[in-house]
Design a protein that fits this description.
The chain is 39% helix and 26% strand. The strands form 2 sheets. It has a 3-stranded antiparallel beta sheet, with helices on one face. It has a two-stranded antiparallel sheet with strand order 1-2.
Length: 131
């Protein structure tokens, strides 16, 4: 670059050194915007995965608690259901009891459905034996 002696402090540009063109600036802004967008989408996708994992962990904990409660509950050979444990807000538990075919009256198949906002998210089955 060459200094202009007539006006101190001003830089005289040679031909072809016009600075950043508008197109170059727009491309740079678009690339940076795309990078930010990818980061935001990755973070929001991770947050959704964590939320879904929390729902599954809650459902599994409810299912385990329900089955343990039923195992400790007194055996009823004519039962069609057993009481459900208290569920957190938004969750519900339904329990069904079916006799086991080709078995005596001392064994039952217990099915617990864990629902969240009316949608079944987990079904677990176990057997209750009269001991």
């Amino acid at each position: 670059m060459k200094r202009n002696n007539k006006s101190p402090g001003r830089i005289r540009l040679r031909r072809g050194e016009g600075g950043i063109a508008l197109v170059e600036a727009l491309v740079t802004i678009a690339l940076l915007g795309g990078g930010v967008l990818v980061m935001v989408l990755a973070i929001s996708g991770g947050a959704l995965a964590v939320r879904e994992n929390d729902r599954q962990v809650t459902a599994q904990g409810l299912a385990r608690t329900q089955l343990e409660y039923i195992k400790d509950y007194p055996y009823d050979s004519g039962a069609t259901t057993y009481p459900a444990v208290a569920a957190p807000s938004g969750y519900s538990i339904t329990v069904g009891v079916d006799p086991v075919p080709a078995a005596d009256d001392d064994i039952q198949k217990v099915t617990a459905n864990i629902s969240r906002n009316g949608e079944i998210i987990m079904t677990i089955e176990d057997y209750k034996v009269n001991r």
